[in-house]
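Materials and Methods. Structural model of Pleckstrin homology domain-containing family J member 1. The 148-residue sequence of Pleckstrin homology domain-containing family J member 1 from Bos mutus was retrieved and submitted for structure prediction as follows.
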Amino acid sequence: MRYNDKELQALSRQPAEMAAELGMRGPKKGSVVKRRLVKLVVNFLFYFRIRFGPIGALLLEHCRVIHEEPNSFSISFLEDPERKYHFECCSEEQCQQWMAALRQASYEFMRRSLIFYRNEIQKMTGKDPLEQYGISEEARFQLSGLKA
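The predicted structure was written out as C-alpha cells:
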C-alpha cells in the first residue's frame, strides 16, 4: 500500500478511539516485548516509542485479532497469518476492550454496519436515509454487494 509520510504523521496526531501503553512484540523471530504507546485512529493502529513520534502503523484491514494468553492478544493479516504482532495488556478487561475496538475498526466492518442501519431505518421510515447525501445508488452501500 502506498501512503504519504506527512499524511500518516498527521493522522497519528488525530484524537484516538483508544490509546494506552501496552507491551508489544513484533513479528520477527527473537523479538522481545517492549513498552509502546499504542493508539487506534480510525482503521490504523499506530505505535510509538514512549515520548517520541510514531515508529510504525498497522492498517487494520483483512486482519484477525486473536486472544492469546491471559491479558494478551495478537494481530495477524490474512495474506501472511504466521506473521503476528503480539500485545500485552495490564488486565483481561483492557485486553477485551482492545480486541473489540480493533475488530470494529476496519472499513469492511463500518460498511456492513452502515448497510445494516440503513436498511433498518428504511424499514422503519420507508425512506432511504442516504438519499439526502446523494449516495443512495452507490453499489458499495447496497445490500446485494454484501456477502455474509
